[in-house]
Amino acid sequence: MKTPVKLFVVCALLVTGTALHAQEEFSISTQIRPRAEYRNGTLFPRDAGDGAVFFVNTRARLSMEYKRSDLIMKLSGQHVGVWGQDPQIEKEGRFMLNEAWLQLPFGNGFFVKAGRQQLSYDDDRILGTLDWNTSGRWHDALKVGYENKIRSAHLLLAYNQKIEPYAGMDYSYTDAQPYKTMQGLWYKEQIGKKFNISALFLNLGLVPGSASSSPVDVKYMQTMGTNLNFVTSDWNLYGTFYFQTGKNAQKQKVEAWMWALKADYKLNDTWKLTVGSDWLSGDNHPAEGTYKAFNPLYGTHHKFYGAMDYYYASGFLSGMAPGLWDNQLGVSFKASKDVVLQANYHLFSSTTDPKDRWLTSDLGKSLGSELDLTIDWQIRKDVKLSGGYSVYFGTATMEMYKGGSQDSWQDWGWVSLNVNPRVFISKW
To answer: Which of 11, 76, 204, 310 is the most buried (most CB within 10 A)?
Structure first.
């Protein structure tokens, strides 16, 4: 065999061996997501005489991921902002990391994941990615996990500082993560092909919104609950229950709870009906005694309590926590394989009686109702056009708890283009 031929065979064997054993992969993904919004009473009801506003916000994200059998890494950076926010000649750019983590698999389903990461569990009710928000949501945390086809278990640990402390450094979450420490346990098990059950426990170390004395006075609040999901070819039934105890950042004892039930029924390949009910406890006297208002923490609230984000995605007026009972009815129509239209109606009320707060009040519990209309059009495999329109019909009780005017027309509209291609992938 001549030398050049020998050399070619040796190189071919080396390349083949590398491809067979290394199984490494590197990919780059991009996302540009502009969204135009017309706001005329979203987040908070508008007062009489307040004008509508219009703006366009954009997320520009670049993600890189590396994988091999014993290591996974991801870096994802983004720039978010409103059109016109930055000067044409910008000297102080705003660029942030929304993901920066590494994962070490140890075989047999065990792994460790550390760094800035998104935490999404069950239906995103308590811990969610909040992808609707331009920035999204992340946690700087350590995750130790085990997963197989039947069950999953995760341990979550986080310890937050604002800077690298040297001695007696105070901590405040006014412009940092909203908790000082977090310890969490999540377990999920698949029972047969149709039923799964999960449980979540979180222990959060909380401090007041303003800087506290040194050492930091941390109060611990526990949130625990379970999720049940039953799925058939036509039905998707979901139930959840959570309870909160311990103490909040204001040093109050906490006893609060929530439950939610949801049923989806697929009439055929075109139509689907949804009915649901969410109940979260409230407290008409939150500054007195045991605090009874449930806090859904770091979930994707936009997904549950109306698209106009009146509840939990935004707050009640200062010192108020009336709770929420949200009854929902929805319908989904698949116009084609690429186009889906949805309509969802929410009927809101408080779970506490306004008479307990205003003794002479004749207000009822009704907070009004909301109608949300949306359309999604998958133009390309990585290009989606979405839009929506919502209107809120307020009450005097809503006005007392949220502000604004019940007599003012409250509506909101938006159009978003989401372009998210994977522009490069290499395997060797």
So the answer is: 310
Residues 6+ apart with CB under 8 A from 337: none
Q: Are strands 339-349 and 151-159 parallel, antiparallel or unpaired?
A: unpaired
Taking Cα atoms as reference points, which of 26, 8, 43 lies closest to residue 308? 43
Token pair, residue 136, equals 């999204």
CA distances from 123 to 198, 229, 321 (A): 11, 10, 24
Q: Which residues of 132-151 are buried (b: 16+ CB within 10 A; e: fewer)?
A: bebebbbbbbbbebeeeeee
Residues in the chain predicted with pLDDT less than 50, given as ranges, are: 4-5, 7-21
CB of 47 within 8 A of CB of 404?
yes
| pLDDT of res. 210 | 58
What is this structure's pTM?
Answer: 0.90
Q: What is the pLDDT of residue 9?
A: 43
pLDDT of residue 17: 44
Rounded CA separation 413/132 (Å)? 14
Strands 235-246, 219-231: parallel, antiparallel or unpaired by DSSP?
Answer: antiparallel
- Looking at the DSSP assignment, which residues form a beta bridge with residue 222? 203, 245
**pLDDT at residue 121 in the model:** 97
Secondary structure of residue 232 in the 3-state scheme? coil
pLDDT of residue 15: 42
Q: Which residue has the tokens 């995103």?
A: 124
Could you give the CA distance from residue 139 to residue 299 in angstroms, rounded to a whole number?
A: 12
Dist. CA 271–CA 343, nearest whole Å: 12
Q: Give the span between the Cα atoms of 163 and 254, in whole angstroms.
A: 30
Q: Which pLDDT value is given to residue 134?
A: 95
The sign of the torsion formed by the CA atoms of 71, 116, 384, 93 equals: negative
How confident is the model at residue 213, as a pLDDT?
52
Query: Contact, 251 vs 219, CB < 8 A?
Result: yes
Cα separation of 106 and 226, whole Å?
28
The β-bridge partners of 73 are 66, 102
Residue 341 phi/psi, 5° resolution? -115, 140
